[in-house]
Specification:
Length: 503
């Protein structure tokens, strides 16, 4: 059957190679965020222009992820993987060498397009390399690479930017990528090819239009005041049109780009619902915490990177534990425990003030990592347990597309709520800044926040802005906690899961 790999002679080395490649792709998803101010200065770009460094990567990845299944069946998984890793290495070097914003964006598009194949192909390769009884453990190791990358990305990016300059956040991918490429060439087995397989161009183009427009709308919506801007209206219209045409076409054609019958597999659709919630609530804290610590707490970049690390430690420990416990406890208990940890961590973060200490940031980050990691392995068991091996690559592509879109939706909601909640809070706080406010008449307060002097007014304005922003962050953390609790009622619908991939 096409798409089935011959057994790997060295499964551990083959898995390590594809996991390493997956990790550098996932790291680059977030590593550039901390370097944007430095890149903005280098390219003399506006804030809106420099945002394309992130937007181009996300959109290119989202558009190309669904093609992984077709390309692997048409040309062979190993060939596609080798070309993708080589292209990612080349694009990373070009990103670091770019002397203009235009070149940087083009290189990031190539980087995102090549990297998009690495996650679904590596996931399918790891599953094919081991018998079903070892799948839970190997999905734990695979998850460490795919999920841990976005966690260490900001930390690594901050240190490299401060120590060596922003170009090194891209150069660092070159030697790591070469190691992965050599391992893939040496140890990854090839799958059987189907030279006669044809691409459903209409399905691909409509899905690319819908997903690409949706991702751009989500990424740029807050900066463009959402539907007050013609650009966002056009993107939303294109997203609806593209996705509608894709669904209608997929239900009526004989050989669709993505087979809708995949959704009929027991547990797959429910698993995607959990994947969607997982992506929506685990990524926003990674985006919110660096500016919170820098702008509200006044912490330096290296300290911010250090305080982000407990989340990564919790993630690694819980993924390893999840790989051992999934077959013992089953997915329901572990998924429920993980989402409960995510809810508890988010709720605790919503109680923070501007005086929050280092310890609350450390233990909530660690707890958030525990929750994110413990969910991932049993979630893979739910998604892949009833799928034939020949459908793993397609299922992995769909799963990672859903997670990517959900992450963008979560970040977009978080940033929108942060801006609007802070603006509302500021308006309410300003109402109390009057000479008739009893608090402002106290001698100690009046000396510092003197309403009769420009210095005093400036200090008071700064405090109002900080308090309003803190209220905005608290609102974000509250809704993230509430969203995590939404997963708990769905646990009763989970089917009993046998070993992943067993027929």
């Amino acid at each position: 059957m096409s798409g089935i790999a011959v057994p790997a002679r060295h499964p551990a080395l083959a898995s390590a190679s594809v996991i390493l490649a997956t990790m550098i792709y996932s790291i680059d998803w977030t590593i550039a965020a901390v370097a944007l101010p430095h890149m903005q200065g280098t390219f003399s770009a506006t804030q809106d222009q420099i945002s394309w460094v992130i937007t181009s990567y996300i959109v290119a990845s989202a558009v190309m992820i669904p093609t992984a299944n077709f390309l692997s069946q048409r040309f062979g998984r190993k060939r596609v993987f080798v070309v993708a890793v080589a292209g990612f290495i080349l694009a990373s070097a070009c990103c670091g060498l770019a002397n203009s914003l235009q070149v940087e964006v083009v290189a990031r598009i190539l980087q995102g397009a090549c990297g998009a194949f690495l996650v679904p192909l590596s996931q399918a390769a790891v599953l094919d390399a081991y018998p079903p009884e070892k799948h839970a453990r190997m999905m734990g190791f695979w998850g460490m690479g795919s999920v841990f990358g976005p966690v260490i990305g900001p930390t690594l990016g901050g240190y490299l930017t401060e120590a060596l300059g922003w170009r090194w956040i891209f150069f660092i991918s070159v030697p790591i990528g070469l190691m992965a490429l050599i391992g893939v060439l040496a140890f990854l087995p090839e799958t059987k090819r189907d030279p006669g397989r044809r691409l459903d161009w209409f399905g691909f183009l409509t899905l690319a239009l819908g997903v690409g427009a949706l991702q751009m709308m989500l990424d740029r919506g807050e900066r463009q005041a959402w539907f007050e801007a013609p650009e966002i209206i056009v993107q939303a219209s294109l997203a609806v049109l593209g996705l509608y045409l894709f669904v209608a076409h997929s239900l009526t054609t004989r050989a669709p780009f993505l087979d809708p019958r995949l959704l009929a597999a027991r547990g797959f659709t429910l698993g995607l619902a959990f994947v969607f919630l997982y992506g929506m609530i685990t990524v926003p804290p990674m985006v919110l915490m660096p500016p919170f610590m820098q702008e509200l707490r006044g912490m330096p970049v290296d300290t911010i990177g250090l305080l982000q690390s407990p989340r990564g430690v919790g993630l690694l420990l819980s993924m390893f534990a999840g790989s051992l416990l999934t077959t013992v406890l089953g997915p329901r208990i572990l998924i429920g425990f993980g989402f409960a940890c995510l809810a508890l961590a988010s709720w605790e973060m919503s109680t923070w003030t501007l005086e929050v200490g280092v310890w609350p940031i450390i233990w909530t980050g660690f707890l958030h990592g525990i929750g994110a990691g413990i969910v991932w392995v049993p979630l893979q068991a739910v998604v892949f347990s009833n799928l034939e091996p020949s459908r793993r690559t397609e299922a992995a592509s769909v799963q990672n597309l859903v997670r990517s879109v959900a992450s963008s939706i979560g970040v977009s909601i978080a940033l929108t709520m942060l801006t609007r909640s802070a603006a509302t809070a500021r308006a309410r706080l300003v109402e109390h800044v009057t000479p008739y406010n009893e608090t402002l008449r106290f001698a100690d307060v009046a000396r510092y926040w003197d309403l009769e002097s420009l210095v005093g007014l400036a200090r008071l304005q700064q405090q109002v802005e900080l308090q309003a922003a803190m209220i905005g962050y608290a609102s974000d953390f509250r809704w993230l906690g509430a969203a995590a609790l939404l997963a708990l009622p769905l646990l009763v619908l989970l089917p009993r899961v046998r070993a992943v991939g067993r027929a």
